[in-house]
Design brief:
The structure is a single chain. This protein is mostly helical. The protein contains 2 helices and no strands. The protein has one domain. Helix 1 packs across helix 2.
Length: 66
């Protein structure tokens, strides 16, 4: 993996993590009319980090197919 590919993977992971965090902690509770609690925020951080990493990795694998 070249430096450019590593950089792109990290950038994708960062944005995917932010997107998942917003969906899990802000958007879904708003739709369900539930309050945003500290517990939800703290639970959303590791889920978002791991989910963003998985999505970025699968995007990389998908790109390499073509």
């Amino acid at each position: 993996m070249t430096e450019k590919q590593k950089k792109r993977l990290v950038i994708r992971w960062f944005w995917m993590s932010i997107m998942l965090f917003l969906i899990n902690v802000v958007i879904l509770p708003f739709i369900e009319k539930m309050p945003i609690t500290t517990e939800k925020v703290l639970m959303g951080i590791p889920i978002s980090i791991l989910g963003g990493l998985a999505l970025a990795y699968f995007l990389k694998l998908y790109e390499n197919r073509f």
